[in-house]
Amino acid sequence: MTTAYRRLLLKLSGEGLAGEDGYGIHPGLIAAIAEQIREVHDLGVQVSLVIGGGNIIRGMTAAAQGMDRAQADYMGMLASVINAMALQDALEKAGVATRVQTAIEIAQVAEPYIRRRAIRHLEKGRIVIFAAGTGNPYFTTDTAAALRAAEIHADIVMKATQVDGVYNADPSKDTNAVRYDELGFTEALQRDLRFMDQTAIALCRENNLPIIVFDMGVRGNIAKAVRGEKVGTIVREDAAN
Questions:
Q1: Of 59, 60, 186, 193, which is most buried with the most CB atoms under 10 A?
Q2: Domain 17-139 is of which CATH architecture?
Q3: 143-191 pLDDT, tens per residue?
Q4: Is-contact 83 54, C-beta < 8 A?
């Protein structure tokens, strides 16, 4: 089957692993996510992931409550490693060879991030999960996703959310909010649309790396996007504007 993308990076939030509890890891939910990822992998697409740690701790939230920001961010990086290990376990139970690479060295549980090794894993048909963000405080996992996608020459960044795309206002608060089918990078930055942080959006713009923002809760959405079907909002080069 023909696919629209050869290599993708999927950005998952830590909160997406928690389910209705809002914290921790929900085994049934993570197994369902792994199954969706396996379906895309089976199409012959090279799949990499960046995962957050917000279901365990959010650095910015902890900092707002009085914790040192750098310390809190490092704790968040370690939380993302826990999530990556859980997702690796679920993917391998689904029959897909998976490697976790971390920006913070934890040799007992994962490989260190090495760009060329990551690319080689992808070429060999393994899924690669990038954990621990960029390895630096003050940078979000959105920025880590944009950075890793650029480094491995991904064709697309797929941002999994709990809404069906990018809106001009928060649809949970504004019933008149309008969803974009397509959006330019510059407009997204100028309007300060918060589907990703601005550093991540700017990095994608600089590297001509399109972003698809979609609802992960709808089963099959990843595969549909990979096949080139319209899913969510695509954010890309501004020529169309």
A1: 59
A2: 3-Layer(aba) Sandwich (3.40)
A3: 999 999 999 999 999 999 989 999 999 888 898 999 999 999 999 999 9
A4: no
